[in-house]
Structure formats: C-alpha cells, structure tokens
Design goal:
It is a single chain. With 238 residues, this protein is an all-alpha fold. Helices cover 74% and strands 0% of the residues. The protein is built from ten helices and no strands.
C-alpha cells in the first residue's frame, strides 16, 4: 500500500516538474493512473508538493508527516480519555496508541491511514466535548467540530465510516434519544460529516473519473467471524 501512495505522489511530482524530461513525466503519469483512485489523494498531493520544494522524491517527508498526524491523534485520544478516566487514563490511552508494536509500524507508513486515525481521534474528542457542553451555548460549536472532524476523516479515507458511524449513532441515541431526528445540532453535525465526501464523489463523477469501489477490499461476512477479531488482536501485539 505504501508503494501505491509513493507511485501516485511521483506522478503528481513529475507532472508539475518543468525540469523533468517528457519520457519521465509520461512514465510517472502512467504509473499514477495505473494505480487508480481509491480515495482522495490528500497525503500524496501534499507529499508531491513537498518533493518540489525539496528537489526530489524524499520519502522521509511523507513518513514524517504520518508520524506527526499519528502523534496529534494520540493527543486527541489523551484529551478524550482524560475526561472519562482521569489524567492517568489519558496517559495510558495515549501511551498505548504511541508505543504498541503495531503503532510503531503503522504510524510511519506512507498511507492515508495515519491522517484518518488522527481525524477519527479528533472526532472522539469533539463529540465528547459536545455531549458534555449541552445544553450550553458551546454545544453548537462542538457539534459543528464533531461533524467537521468526521467529514474530514471520511474524506481522507471513507473506511473511517465503519468505525465512526456506530460510535456517533450510539452517542446521539444515548444523549438525544428518539428525538435526535428533530435536534438541529444533530443535523448540523450529520451534514458536515457527509458533505465533503459527497461533494468529492459528485465532482469525480462529473469529471468522468472512476473511483474504485470497496469490492475486493471489504468483506462484511468477516464481521460475524471470531477469527477476524482475533487477528486484529494479533496485529496489536506483533
């Protein structure tokens, strides 16, 4: 998956590099197009811009970017856990996210996942503040922040919806009950969550670009399989 992102970033970089020969630009563009579009290519675009400033394909930059996002996500998780479990609970949660064996690998990978995880943790933090501030005037701001974080996470990688959807649905039902559909704050958060990805998909469709579907990458039948979750636990200790 890292090769996927690196090849896309290379295509963007050479396409805007006036010093590159035509054959190199054509070769890089062919590689980027061959990879297809899975999600909005945010990390790849930012990395290509940085390559232009650095004068070449310096792969340490996107890895540093991933580390930065993962660390910021751990800070959001710390703030969230501290509200529920005190200062020690916040430190334990952030420490596990930063130093578990899996995190040491995933946090430096050139993939959209570290940014997605950062924004997901931001969603948890904002949502926690939202329900704790209501019915005060600050609740509106935190409702908007919850939707903005969730919308950004879905935009970076739509797979975030599989994790954020159940959490936000449970949170809304727990704190707003059956009247949630008549609650303006819920509608604001919901619209902000779905508009960025909806706009992206609409724009790509209008431009004639094909976004690769989830087929071959998402297997709902595994959700009822115990081995699926045991494998998850194994990944956290490898």
């Amino acid at each position: 998956r890292q090769l996927h992102s690196a090849e896309i970033a290379r295509g963007f970089y050479y396409a805007t590099n006036p010093d590159a020969p035509d054959w190199q630009r054509a070769f890089a563009l062919e590689g980027r197009l061959r990879r297809g579009v899975i999600e909005p290519q945010v990390m790849e675009s930012v990395s290509a811009w940085a390559f232009g400033l650095l004068g070449g394909e310096e792969l340490w930059f996107p890895r540093l970017l991933s580390i930065t996002f993962w660390t910021l996500g751990a800070w959001f998780l710390h703030l969230t856990a501290r509200r529920w479990a005190g200062r020690l609970g916040g430190l334990v949660a952030a420490g596990y996210m930063l130093f578990s064996p899996y995190a040491l690998q995933a946090s430096r990978a050139f993939m959209p996942d570290p940014l997605m995880v950062c924004l997901m943790c931001g969603t948890l933090w904002a949502a926690t503040r939202w329900v704790s501030e209501r019915p005060g005037p600050g609740a509106w701001w935190w409702a908007a922040a919850t939707g903005a974080f969730a919308g950004a996470a879905l935009f970076v990688k739509p797979a975030a919806g599989y994790f954020l959807g159940p959490f936000l649905a449970a949170l809304v039902l727990r704190h707003f009950g059956l009247r949630s559909l008549r609650t303006p704050q819920v509608w604001v958060a919901g619209l902000l969550a779905v508009l960025p990805l909806t706009g992206y998909l609409t724009a790509t469709s209008a431009l004639g670009l094909e976004v690769l579907g989830m087929g071959g990458r998402v297997f709902p039948e595994l959700w009822a399989s115990s081995s699926f979750y045991l494998n998850w636990a194994g990944m956290l200790t490898i």
